[in-house]
Amino acid sequence: MRHLLDTRTLAKDDALRILDTAEDMAATQQREVKKLPTLRGKTVVNLFYEDSTRTRISFEAAAKRLSADVINFSAKGSSVSKGESLKDTAQTLQAIGADGVVIRHPGSGAPARLASSGWIDAGVLNAGDGTHEHPTQALLDAFTMRRRLFGEDLAGSRGRDLDGVSAVIVGDLAHSRVARSNLWLLTTLGAHVTFVAPETLQPYGARTWPVTVRHSLDEALREDAPDVVMMLRIQSERMHAAFFPNEREYARNWGLDDGRLAALPERTIVMHPGPMNRGLEISSAAADSERSTVLEQVANGVSVRMAALYLLLSGERETQA
User: Fold this and answer.
1) Which residue segments constitute the domains of the chain, with CATH numbers given?
2) What DSSP string runs through 281-320?
């Protein structure tokens, strides 16, 4: 891979290659010594213009376990706060010899701009751009689904797509890059995706996408018989208007509460990309239940990001993904 910018244009073979490589990485993480020498001598820059805990730490852990040198860059306290442009920052990274740049940016399309600009030779990996995409989150979600639904070992999930899997994604879809990346990747892997949210939180143009759009969570759980229920955080920091009357009404109509949890089919797993608003989009019982994969998603994120960095930075980077 030359870059990893989105899942909408990610071919099925490339997606499965990342997931299968992540299986190999996960196997190495069971050893006493978890580090691999694969990216020794490479420099990875985590270029984060937005706050992050899970994603930044996960990428840092992934790069270090591959023996890469890691530079963490935060826009706060840097020259960005003084008005430095993305171009100038990129050229600075080029000058210090960055081989890979993991970028999170509030502007949709910023990673693609960086990758195509000619400002830097490094491979670019999108760690979330505006409301556009978050490809490695979708990949770790798919990795988690494969393991939970088809077997939690290498033999059980290697090479498997998600054909026939039903995934219901619920919540603040309008502002969710996670929902968009999951839609494109899960569809590519053969799954059927349902979006559930009030009309005000449905993404613009969703009815033209390969997704079933519903406004009732109870209807979706009844009609779609989901294998996966993925709850999304209400992103109040991106909201500049009233998208629903109040939190109590939202929780009552679109939250995964104890009653809905108990009514789920036995096979159904519960996912959340975090951070969670307990009592709003998901109850504590649901978040902490045996069905929940929340902590597995965090752990699997390291293996998936190790795979992405490995495929991006080891050997020749030929084609863009």
Assistant:
1) 12-133+299-313 (3.40.50.1370), 136-293 (3.40.50.1370)
2) TB-HHHHTSTTB-HHHHHHHHHHHHHHHHHHHHSS---S-
